[in-house]
Amino acid sequence: MATTAVHLEAGRLSKLLFPLFSDPLFTIAIVQTISYVFGSMSDSSNSVSFSNFLDSQSFIGVNYGNQASELPQPGDIVNLLKTTTIAKVRLLGSADQSMIKALANTDIELVIGLDNTEIQWVASGPDAASQWVNSKVMPYYPASKIIIITVGNEVLTSENQDVISSTLPAMQNIQNALNTASLGEKIKVTTVHSMAVLSQFSPPSSGAFNLSFVDTMKALLQFQSAHGSPFMINAFPFCAYKSDPKPETLAFCLFQPNSGQVDSRNNIEYMNMFDVQVDAVRSALNAMGYNDTEIVVAQTGWPNQNYRNEVGPSLDNAKAYVGNLINHLRSNVGTPLMPGKSLDTYIYELFDEDEKIGTVSSSEQSFGLYKSDTSPYYDSGLFKSSENPTTPSPTTPASPTPAPNPVGLWCVPKPDGISDAQLQENINFACSQGIDCSPIKQGGACFEPNTIASHAAYVMNLYYLFAGKNPWNCNFSQTATITTTNPSYDGCVYPSGST
């Protein structure tokens, strides 16, 4: 995550994105701090653990940066990656050749790039670009599955006009060097943008690029469209929360139960900030005529430590954001403007980078998923498992059917003090996460009795199973509890979790 992202996004989000929160129509219900059902530790995550989902998912990637005082050896990093479902790695900064080599013959796809300081040199002529490709690509490809070369990171918002004006020529030179090596159709060339390239993203359907970048953006998009390369964006709901640090904003940013936000232009309801940010980019691209340009989320994550009393960074929040993001991607629900598809998303980042210089805040050094000894900071749901459940359908998600257990567990609303409004929020949240809510609709096996409490009980339990059957998956802002009493009735069967 670049300094530019924190500085510009935080400043602009407060002006551009949060009119939604000030309008009563878009007010999000305040979510109390969520604790484990067992009560032993605070966990604001409602985090979903899908570690059994598949051996790997092509849409889940991770960023790797080496600005750290202590990092594992490349071979140890590769061994760690092999224990996870991570299918892609993006190397930050100038391409780290030791990592490119280490990732050979692993089937892990690789994004490498030019550092911002290299752009003017590569833009200077074809010889420089050929030299870069010959040193960073040719010795390793195809054993190392390089799929994308990024020319700089957040260049347009860097305010360095010399580098900005050199970006497209550098991209063209790299593309020509790849063409000469017969790799022009196999490796895509692009650049990475901050969310600050947007002048408007509230509501998402009105997303538009900043007028000061329009001419440059048009030229970049013309190049990328001609070569089929993706539009890569750094999207950080964390920055949105820093701009409006309220409990309701946090719930929306962490994929926790909330009452949602409605886009007044198209009446689409949004249940999380990630979808808001990505769909704003989709709208901006569509407005410029690039409806078919693929979006890739180059960086997204949440800091795991708080050094200077900053708002938002914590281990619980990082676990909540990353875990729930992974579940959201794995559900194949997509976003409201791009339904039924999981975007390629690169989590920021594999390890902390404590040697970053000139960062706006110390939290930028603490986005790591793993410690330097390769142990996890928290269970993000990325580790592989011997189990291999069925992939949920993006259009008609299947209800989970756990194996029979001697003692079943079910997630149901607490018996007293829970309002219908809160239960309706639970229904809305659970049904937005890719589970099959058709049984509670008219004609469904669980439609009767036609009460909010009955419908909430069914879908809350289904979400509990779908999310991983962990105690924190049955929390719903402290409105749910786990029971061993089977709530099934007549033809309405509640699947059970295991003991």
UniProtKB/TrEMBL annotation:
It is found in: Secreted. Its EC number is 3.2.1.39. One of its GO terms (cellular component) is extracellular region. GO terms for molecular function: glucan endo-1,3-beta-D-glucosidase activity. Keywords: Disulfide bond, Glycosidase, Hydrolase, Secreted, Signal. Belongs to the glycosyl hydrolase 17 family. It catalyses: Hydrolysis of (1->3)-beta-D-glucosidic linkages in (1->3)-beta-D-glucans. Its main location: secreted. It comes from Abeliophyllum distichum. Residues 409-494 form the X8 domain. Residues 381-406 are annotated as: Disordered. This is glucan endo-1,3-beta-D-glucosidase. Residues 391-405 have a biased composition (Pro residues).
